[in-house]
Amino acid sequence: MSDQDKRLGVYFHIPFCASKCAYCDFCSLPGRDKLMPYYQDALLIQLQETMPRMTDYFIDTVYFGGGTPSYYGARRIVEILQELKVTNRLMKQSEITVECNPDSVRRKELRMLRKEGVNRLSIGAQSANDDLLRLIGRRHNWRQVEMAVRRARKAGFRNVSIDLIYGLPEQTMTRWQANLDAALALAPEHLSCYGLKVEEGTPLFAQRERFTLPDDDAQADMYLSAVGLLARQGYEQYEISNFCRPGRASRHNSRYWTLAEYLGFGPGAHSDFGGERFALARDLDACLAGHIVYSERSAPSARERETERVMLALRTTRGVAADTLPEAARRILRNCEAHGLAHLSGGFYALTPRGFLVSNAILVDLLETMEL
């Protein structure tokens, strides 16, 4: 590999699910299983047609997200990986992640994925409380999460991530901390902790008056308790919602926060590739027909890229180099530092956990200074 070869991440969106969760606002399509073979064909054709644009790149991360990739099946995922390998651009040390739901994790399929080079699993646990899981429409229980992790270990996976959601209906601090304890007992290499957002158009939004939802202050307390507990247990926070054992940060997701290039396939997938940012429409029928329909497409200017760089860097615990910021932006961050919302270390400004809680407001203020 020469110095001129560039690195690329590849994302495959798998929109199929056994059922749709009450809070889900992603491009996921339950009850469309009969279309899976046709979707696979369309995805492979799109990949083959795009390959000539990828010849200057080496692929160092691959991510299968959804929807539910584990429901889509290991055989199809393996077929996609084999197609990628034909290009001779997939690096041997690539990070290859597959998202899994605990109810669709099969021992044989895990072995098949591991043999093909998949080396990271992201398991959508969401809660260790079975009552809450039923309430939000999840199909699994906590025992299935434990079984999924156990099967992953037996299949040879040494990099397992668990997703949890805080701020769920009827969730108390005690329940949230019990979730964290249960997840930590499984010794994952990585944890993602997301605050619930009740999106308009979801079943949970329609039913929101029936439940007691933790308010912003309660969610903030849950978040800060997670940051503290995970730090004490040896997990490093490297982004607002993500924590890992040393050296186990998600390499693929880190691309998004560092403006590294990535290319997405499938409805709803986003890309930052060849100087362009674009997103494919959430239109499965268009995809099956072989049509590329964009929901957004732009070529950001150098100034826009610089703004993006700062905004995204401040999502991470590393932060942004102070000497790359205009004085007005540094003044805002110094004020944040005085209020315990940011800190300066090694020449980098980064937000503190409390700063992350109000990061949107901070970023709006910074954005105004950078647009002057």
Fold topology:
Blueprint: E1 6-14, E2 16-17, E3 29-30, H1 36-50, E4 57-66, H2 69-72, H3 74-86, E5 90-100, H4 107-116, E6 120-126, H5 130-135, H6 142-154, E7 160-166, H7 173-184, E8 190-195, H8 203-206, H9 216-232, E9 236-239, E10 242-244, H10 251-258, E11 262-265, E12 270-273, E13 276-280, H11 284-288, E14 294-298, H12 302-313, E15 320-321, H13 327-338, E16 342-345, E17 348-351, H14 353-357, H15 359-370
Parallel strand pairs: 1-4, 1-11, 2-3, 4-5, 5-6, 6-7, 7-8
Antiparallel strand pairs: 8-10, 9-10, 12-13, 13-14, 15-17, 16-17
Helix pairs in contact: 1-3, 3-4, 7-9, 13-15
Describe, in plain words, how this protein is organized in 3D.
- The chain has 15 helices and 17 strands.
- With 372 residues, it is α/β, with parallel strands linked by helices.
- The strands form four sheets. Strands 9-10-8-7-6-5-4-1-11 form a nine-stranded mixed sheet, with helices on both faces. It has a three-stranded antiparallel sheet with strand order 12-13-14, with no helix packed on it. The protein has a three-stranded antiparallel sheet with strand order 15-17-16.
- Helix 4 links the parallel strand 5 (90-100) and strand 6 (120-126).
- Helix 1 (36-50) runs parallel beside helix 3 (74-86) and helix 7 packs parallel to helix 9.
- The chain is globular and about 55 Å long.
- It starts with 5 loop residues before the first strand and ends with a helix.
- 37% of the residues are buried.
